[in-house]
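Worked example 3 (structure in, sequence out).
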């Protein structure tokens, strides 16, 4: 159930204001994969669920784990607990998780007829459990912080759908890209339609910002990235609901390994641009100007170090970005399962305390 007037009922809208480059009192922070295996309470819920997919497909449990990091830390946003591969699973590819091997598909796209038969699923039907979770989480948050919805990018989804799982080389995808670009285009067009309707359904159900995770776009060659990843993300951004209940719904785009193409990503109409840890934050700000907010970009492995070292890294990143709004503090990728929970607490505290000097 969405708020009648979220502008007045949202107690902490710092994250949304930062994404829209409006003045804030401090730099907001949330963490990619903030509800995850580094938290003992998450591991306990995951044990009760019996499997990762059961956890994802139970709105009650998805709500529970979404809220767990917010009970520990004063984070400035919640992110829906789900998986980027829900869309191809809903397309009938048979998602499963092999112990120690990550996600796999029982029926990856191998034959041309399978590709031609591919269709975007109705998110309110085959993905209803996700939409139910969004509604439930939004209600449970009770206006404390905004809720972020998300999806994988069309290209990243295609990588898993064609390879049948994760890959170091993406040889099947790249063979199709060079030999049969028409087939890859068909998959990407269907995926773009699916991602657009999926994110719009999340927004309708209560997501107050959305993020597109382009995890594998950085594996593409120059020119091929623009042709097979960025083009389709722009289609998604163009098709999204950008205002709900009188408030703008910001869109964040994150291409891991996309530091070479920040100006082009910023030009597709997104509000926020995610940065991995290989990018210099101050240089990124100079490159994109005031076109987009920036999100990132602490090296996740820095959280293995001492709280004093973490604070020093936070100070360096805040100084690199400089004064003013338009920065959402985050990691340059997901938090490691081996991170000590108290180190995440030290990170959040340092960002909130040190960033006030820049606002």
């Amino acid at each position: 159930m969405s708020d009648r007037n979220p502008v007045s009922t949202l107690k902490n809208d710092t994250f949304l204001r930062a994404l829209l480059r409006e003045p804030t009192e401090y730099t907001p922070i949330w963490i990619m994969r903030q509800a995850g295996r580094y938290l003992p309470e998450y591991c306990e819920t995951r044990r009760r669920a019996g499997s990762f997919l059961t956890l994802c497909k139970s709105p009650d449990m998805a709500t529970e784990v979404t809220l767990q990091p917010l009970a520990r830390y004063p984070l400035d946003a919640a992110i829906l607990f789900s998986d980027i591969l829900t869309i191809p699973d809903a397309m009938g590819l048979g998602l499963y998780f092999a112990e120690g091997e990550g996600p796999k598909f029982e029926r990856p796209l191998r034959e041309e007829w399978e590709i031609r038969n591919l269709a975007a699923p109705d998110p309110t039907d085959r993905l209803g459990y996700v939409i139910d979770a969004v509604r439930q989480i939004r209600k449970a948050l009770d206006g404390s912080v905004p809720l972020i919805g998300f999806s994988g990018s069309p290209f990243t989804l295609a990588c898993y759908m064609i390879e049948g799982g994760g890959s170091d080389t993406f040889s099947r995808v790249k063979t199709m890209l060079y030999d049969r670009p028409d087939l890859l285009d068909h998959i990407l067009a269907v995926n773009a339609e699916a991602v657009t309707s999926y994110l719009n359904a999340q927004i309708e159900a209560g997501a107050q910002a959305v993020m597109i995770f382009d995890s594998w776009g950085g594996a593409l060659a120059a020119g091929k990235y623009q042709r097979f990843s960025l083009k389709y993300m722009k289609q998604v951004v163009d098709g999204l609901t950008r205002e709900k209940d009188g408030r703008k719904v910001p869109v964040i785009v994150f291409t891991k390994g996309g530091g070479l193409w920040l100006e082009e990503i910023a030009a597709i109409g997104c509000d926020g641009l995610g940065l991995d840890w290989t990018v210099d934050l101050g240089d990124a700000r100079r490159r994109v100007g005031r076109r987009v907010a920036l999100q990132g970009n602490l090296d996740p492995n820095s959280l293995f170090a001492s709280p004093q070292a973490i604070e020093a890294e936070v100070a360096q990143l805040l100084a690199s970005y400089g004064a003013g709004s338009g920065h959402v503090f985050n990691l340059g990728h997901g938090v490691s399962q081996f991170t000590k929970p108290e180190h995440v607490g030290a990170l959040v505290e340092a960002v909130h305390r040190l960033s006030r000097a820049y606002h």
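Notes: The chain has a mean pLDDT of 95. DSSP finds 16 helices and eleven strands in the chain.
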